[in-house]
Amino acid sequence: MYVKICGLREPEHVMAAVEAGADAIGFVLTRSSRRVTPARARELASTVPSHVLTVAVFAGETSHEVRQATLESGVRAVQLHGDHPHEDFTALKDLGVTLVRAGGAAADLRCGAFDEDLLIVDAPRPGSGQPWDWSAVRGRPRGRWMLAGGLDPSNVAEAISAAEPWGVDVSSGVETAPGVKDSGLIRSFLDAARRTGRG
Ligand SMILES: O=C(O)c1ccccc1NCC(=O)[C@H](O)[C@H](O)COP(=O)(O)O
């Protein structure tokens, strides 16, 4: 089970995620209580070993803004939320980063349909921590896809069993308040996701 921990802002939480075995960690570079500057993302990403994917999260920025912030932050992946046309993904190909498309259950659920490498199927309001009917997408997404939206250490096993994703992505569920991560919750989440024995 591939696990991404999103919305990290402090070195101690980056370390906790890496040491607990996260496959990917995300930095939010869009409007949010979790927002960090590209310079801060670079500082945090510089401490991450190369086997862990560093991801910059965007929602609504132009391709030019995404490109600039990605280069500035030095991350290895870009996650785009919202209704981006295929051309926006194509335009980022030359950066050589992993492209992640994030959308709701009504989006095109074929990973790769927009030339992306990974797909996230998320709640209607990304980063809100609101659970949704994960079972509604069971059997529908194709390829490498992560389930997100309202996951936490206590429900991730149930969510995995309901939707049978390739991976999971969490932010609010490993926080004690919006934007405030907790190392213990990060470890518990990774432990619970891995204990499902899938993948
Ligand atoms: O985290 C945010 O505030 C955010 C804002 C705008 C677009 C995306 C955002 N976050 C993306 C993620 O953290 C995850 O991909 C996912 O939505 C997890 O959300 P949740 O675990 O429900 O908080």
Q: What is the structural class? A: alpha/beta
Helix content: 25-40%
Gross CATH architecture: Alpha-Beta Barrel
Number of strands: 10
Q: pLDDT below 50 for ≥5 consecutive residues: which ranges? A: none
Associated small molecules: ligand LARABZUK
Outline = globular
Rg of Cα set: 15 Å
State the name of the first-level CATH class.
Answer: Alpha Beta
Distance between the termini: 5 Å
Q: How would you sum up the major sheet?
A: 8 strands, parallel, barrel
**pLDDT average, as an integer?**
96
In CATH, the homologous superfamily goes by the name Aldolase class I
The fold-level CATH name is: TIM Barrel
How many individual helices? Answer: 6
Q: What is the element string, with H for helices and E for strands?
A: EHEHEHEHEEEHEEEH
| Beta-strand content estimate | 15-25%
Give, in spatial order, the strands making up the sheet with the most strands. 1-2-3-4-5-6-7-8
Q: Give the number of domains.
A: 1
